[in-house]
Design brief:
The protein is an alpha/beta fold. It is built from nine helices and seven strands. The longest helix is centred in the N-terminal third of the chain and has 21 residues.
Amino acid sequence: MSDSSSTWTFAQERERHYYETRAKTHDDKQQVYAEFHAPFWKGILAKLSELEFRDDGVYVDVGCGPNPIVAFVEHGRRVGVDPLMPFYCENFVLPPEFEPHEGTIEELAPIKDGEANIIFSMNNIDHIKHLPTAVATLHRKLRPDGHLVISVNVVGNPLTALSAKMFDIYRIADPTHTYHFHSPQEVAQHLASHFEMVKYEVIEHLSEEMQERKKQRDNQARTMRGMVRSSLKFVKNDIILRESLHLFLFKPKQLAS
């Protein structure tokens, strides 16, 4: 695990490069970019029956890119916060009734303390600068009766997990992530100072369906370079890491003042 600013900066550069490529190859420049991911986001929301969305609610997606899950929440104030938000606003069509802000999960400056009903962190907490600071901020920004939703990949290869205890294998195998988790319980432990886990489940099938849609979309534009990149990604994700996508629901603890 590494929480260095240099790793985070490198990850942000990679993220921007990825979306620069997506902006160039996005066929319909008038289409809301998030619409392509609608089945994925709606599939996740369908699994969160504990949540209630109201017209007076505040729903926040941190690290959302141009593709916020809150685009598919049908009520309330829908806010997105991302360090690269100015770039996304310039290069993509964002959802209507969506409030974009530049910022980080460690600060969440656009949201007042105790204002958010639900905060989503989708594939985000393993990319951030400093997890303890982010956890404290998320707790502070949520209402006492609010919820935190997290999706994150969990490393399932026990040999990789064991190697990580002996040397920094991720600096070589997966340098764009500042944090790595090896079990759902480890994710919960990192948040335990401020949050209680309500439930978790594996949603790898939703991720695989989304990846298949992306593959079909990009099939006509495949190049040798892209095929090599896909092969390396397969080796990293499915052999070295054996990642599986998990969905978590947390509620904030009542901390002693």
